[in-house]
Specification:
The protein has 228 residues and is an alpha+beta fold. The protein is built from six helices and nine strands; from the N terminus they run αββααβββαββααββ.
Length: 228
């Protein structure tokens, strides 16, 4: 009868729901990524074991407003970030540090339900400490190079695909201009008109062959005189 069919249908749907919950629980347990899910009221709904380890979360924290948690992250307005993501439905990404100074990429995504409504958000943390420290070392090395280059009594410059990227202080003082005036291909205008084409051709050939470039040309000084 209809009642029996209804009971069977409810039972089948309960089994599907239990299976979906089981699948989600197993997925979260096996995910080696710190994930924290909050509802539209910014209360913690679920989190992975990696998030529990990294953020010192326990089962008792489920249902707790995210603002009430003392997380080991140097972030002041985490709840405001969550609110903005839920309201705007736009993904956000921030670089943050934990209390030990380790760097993470913190990514916030809106949580969409089956009917495509947004009723929460998901936070994911990715360890980027090694990349940040390498980046810092490169920047420090570049800064050291610039200091040494600026003190050199000769012209030093660096060219890239888009033209001139760096000019040392000695070069700029000779030209009497700021570095922005020689960035890209602007430096060509300070060469003698008769030397420009040959320089560009030689430069492009050396760049293509990855070989050295040695040539003579005239360069306009700050007073307007061209010097070899």
């Amino acid at each position: 009868d209809q009642l029996s069919q209804l009971i069977q249908e409810v039972g089948r749907r309960n089994q599907l729901l239990a299976q979906a919950n089981s699948d989600l629980a197993n997925f979260l347990a096996s995910a080696h990524v710190p994930l924290v899910m909050v509802d539209s009221d910014l209360r913690v709904r679920r989190f992975t074991s990696e998030a529990a380890r990294l953020l010192n979360l326990t089962a008792a924290d489920e249902g707790t407003p995210i603002r009430d948690l003392i997380l080991p992250l140097a972030v002041r307005d985490l709840d405001a970030w969550f609110t903005e993501v839920i309201d705007s439905v736009v993904v956000q990404e921030h670089e943050v540090q934990d209390n030990q100074g380790r760097w993470y990429s913190l990514r916030l995504c809106p949580y969409r339900s089956a009917d495509n409504t947004v009723n929460g958000a998901v936070m994911m943390l990715v360890d980027i400490d090694a990349q940040k420290r390498i980046q810092g070392a490169i920047e420090e090395s570049e800064q050291r190079f610039r200091l040494l280059a600026d003190d050199a009594p000769v012209f030093i410059w660096l060219d890239g695909i888009g033209g001139r990227e760096f000019v040392n202080r000695t070069y700029l003082e000779y030209l009497g201009v700021a570095e922005t005036d020689v960035r890209g291909w602007n430096f060509i205008r300070f060469m003698h008109p008769d030397d420009r084409d040959s320089y560009v051709m030689a430069r492009d050939e050396a760049s293509s062959s990855r070989g050295p470039l040695e040539m003579k040309f005239r360069l306009r000084r700050a007073d307007g005189e061209y010097r070899w």
